[in-house]
C-alpha cells in the first residue's frame, strides 16, 4: 500500500526525462506534451538556458531568506513591473499563496479605509486554489465540500455579467475588491469578454474597489500577451502569478499597483522560501527566453493553428460543441463528459487534460512548433472523433 496521501487519482505512468515538447516514460515510450504540467513548463522540458541558469545558481546560493536583500528579487520585480505596468511585487511559492497575499491585501486596504468587514466579489466557476481562503473564493462546490466553515467575506456573482456586479453597489456594503480570471482555466476555458473586463475596471475605479486578476494560469504569455488582462488593454490593482513563472521551479508573485501599492509594511506578510535565489534565477531566465525568442508571438501563431486545425477536423462531427481560448490556452468543448479521453490520449502518446467534465484543455509549452501543432491536431482529432462515435 502506498504511503502517499490519496489526493490525486494518478494516471498509471511515470516519466523519466523530457526534451522540448516531448517526454519519455520509464519504459521508453515517448509522449507529446500538450499540457506542460498544467501550464508550468513554459519553455518545455530540458531547456538549455533554464538548465544552465538553475545549475549555476545552485552552485552559488539556493536560499538566504527574506531577512536579507536579494538583488535577483529586485531585478525580477523591475521586470514584472515593466511588463505589467504595475508597481510592486511580493514573491511566494505557488498560486494559492499569491492569491492569499492578494486577499490579505484587499482586506488590509478595506480596513485602512474604515471598512471593518471587507467583502470581495468573486465569480461562478472560478478557481483560486486549495488553501482555506482560496477555496472559499473558488466557485466550485466540489473544492469546498467537507471543509466548512468556509472563510467569510466573499460574494459570488455570475462570470461575464457586469450588471450582476453593478447591482451589488446598492445592496451590499463593505465591498473592497472584485477578483476574477481573465480566462477561467479550471472552470472550463472561459475567456472574459473584453467589454466586461473594461466595464469591471471602470466600475472598480468609480467605487474605489480593487480589481484583482488571478493570472496564475492565464498569465506568463499563455494567451499571447504577457498577462491575460492585457487582452482588454486594462491594468488591475492586484495581479497574481505562479504556474509558468519559473518554467517548472515553484514560484509565485503578487503584484500591486495604484491604490493597492504601498499598503503592506514589515510584519504584514511574509514567506520563508518566497523569492529565493533558485526561484528568481529560474523566473528571470524564463522571462528572458520568452522575450528573446518571441514566444508571445509563437503562442498567438501556434494557438491559431491548433484552434483552426481542431475546428476544421471536428466541424460537423456530432457531439463537438466548440473550440475556444486565447493563444496557447485552448478548450475543446464536447456535449458529454469526456474524462476518459485523458487515458486514451496517454495510450496514443499524448498528454492532455479534461476540465469541467466536458472540456478538453490544452496548455502546451510556449515553445510548441508548427509541426508539433499538426501532430497534436492529428492525434487529438482522431481520439475525439473515435470517442464521440463510440
Ligand atoms: C492553478 C491555479 C491556482 C492555484 O495554484 P497552486 O500553485 O496550485 O496553488 C490559482 N488560480 C488559478 C487561476 C489556477 O489556475
From TrEMBL:
The modification N6-(pyridoxal phosphate)lysine is found at residue 243. GO terms for biological process: L-arginine biosynthetic process. Pyridoxal 5'-phosphate binds at residues 127, 214-217, 272. It is found in: Cytoplasm. Gene3D superfamilies: Aspartate Aminotransferase, domain 1 (3.90.1150.10), Type I PLP-dependent aspartate aminotransferase-like (Major domain) (3.40.640.10). It is an enzyme of class 2 (transferase). Pathway: Amino-acid biosynthesis; L-arginine biosynthesis; N(2)-acetyl-L-ornithine from L-glutamate: step 4/4; Amine and polyamine biosynthesis; ectoine biosynthesis; L-ectoine from L-aspartate 4-semialdehyde: step 1/3. GO terms for molecular function: diaminobutyrate-2-oxoglutarate transaminase activity; identical protein binding; N2-acetyl-L-ornithine:2-oxoglutarate 5-aminotransferase activity; pyridoxal phosphate binding. It catalyses: N(2)-acetyl-L-ornithine + 2-oxoglutarate = N-acetyl-L-glutamate 5-semialdehyde + L-glutamate. One of its GO terms (cellular component) is cytoplasm. N(2)-acetyl-L-ornithine binds at residues 130, 271. HAMAP family: ArgD_aminotrans_3. This is Acetylornithine aminotransferase. It comes from Propionivibrio dicarboxylicus.
Amino acid at each position: 500500500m502506498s504511503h502517499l496521501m490519496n489526493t490525486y487519482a494518478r494516471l498509471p505512468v511515470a516519466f523519466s526525462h523530457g526534451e522540448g515538447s516531448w517526454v519519455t516514460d520509464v519504459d521508453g515510450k515517448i509522449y507529446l506534451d500538450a499540457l506542460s504540467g498544467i501550464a508550468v513548463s513554459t519553455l518545455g522540458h530540458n531547456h538549455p538556458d533554464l538548465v544552465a541558469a538553475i545549475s549555476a545558481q545552485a552552485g552559488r546560493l539556493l536560499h538566504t531568506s527574506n531577512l536579507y536583500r536579494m538583488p535577483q528579487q529586485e531585478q525580477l520585480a523591475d521586470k514584472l513591473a515593466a511588463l505589467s505596468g504595475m508597481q510592486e511585487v511580493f514573491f511566494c511559492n505557488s498560486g494559492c499563496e499569491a492569491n492569499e497575499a492578494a486577499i490579505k491585501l484587499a482586506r488590509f486596504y478595506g480596513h485602512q479605509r474604515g471598512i471593518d468587514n471587507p467583502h470581495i466579489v468573486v465569480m461562478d466557476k472560478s478557481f483560486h486554489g486549495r488553501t482555506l481562503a482560496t477555496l472559499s473564493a473558488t466557485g466550485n462546490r466540489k473544492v469546498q465540500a467537507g471543509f466548512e466553515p468556509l472563510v467569510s467575506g466573499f460574494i459570488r456573482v455570475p462570470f461575464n455579467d457586469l450588471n450582476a456586479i453593478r447591482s451589488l453597489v446598492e445592496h451590499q456594503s463593505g465591498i473592497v475588491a472584485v477578483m476574477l480570471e481573465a480566462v477561467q482555466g479550471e472552470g472550463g476555458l472561459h475567456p472574459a469578454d473584453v467589454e466586461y473586463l473594461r466595464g469591471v475596471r471602470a466600475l472598480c475605479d468609480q467605487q474605489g474597489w480593487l480589481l484583482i486578476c488571478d493570472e496564475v494560469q492565464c498569465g506568463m504569455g499563455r494567451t499571447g500577451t504577457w498577462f491575460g488582462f492585457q487582452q482588454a488593454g486594462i491594468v488591475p490593482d492586484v495581479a497574481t502569478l505562479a504556474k509558468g513563472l519559473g518554467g517548472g521551479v515553484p514560484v509565485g508573485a503578487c503584484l500591486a499597483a495604484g491604490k493597492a501599492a504601498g499598503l503592506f509594511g514589515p510584519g504584514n506578510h511574509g514567506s520563508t522560501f518566497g523569492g529565493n535565489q533558485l526561484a528568481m534565477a529560474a523566473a528571470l531566465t524564463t522571462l528572458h527566453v520568452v522575450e528573446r525568442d518571441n514566444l508571445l508571438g509563437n503562442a498567438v501563431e501556434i494557438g491559431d493553428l491548433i484552434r483552426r486545425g481542431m475546428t476544421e477536423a471536428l466541424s460537423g462531427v456530432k457531439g463537438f460543441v466548440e473550440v475556444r481560448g486565447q493563444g496557447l490556452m485552448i478548450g475543446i468543448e464536447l456535449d458529454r463528459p469526456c474524462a476518459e479521453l485523458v487515458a486514451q490520449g496517454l495510450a496514443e502518446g499524448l498528454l492532455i487534460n479534461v476540465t469541467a467534465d466536458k472540456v478538453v484543455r490544452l496548455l502546451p509549452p510556449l515553445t510548441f512548433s508548427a509541426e508539433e501543432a499538426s501532430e497534436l491536431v492529428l492525434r487529438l482529432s482522431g481520439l475525439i472523433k473515435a470517442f464521440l462515435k463510440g
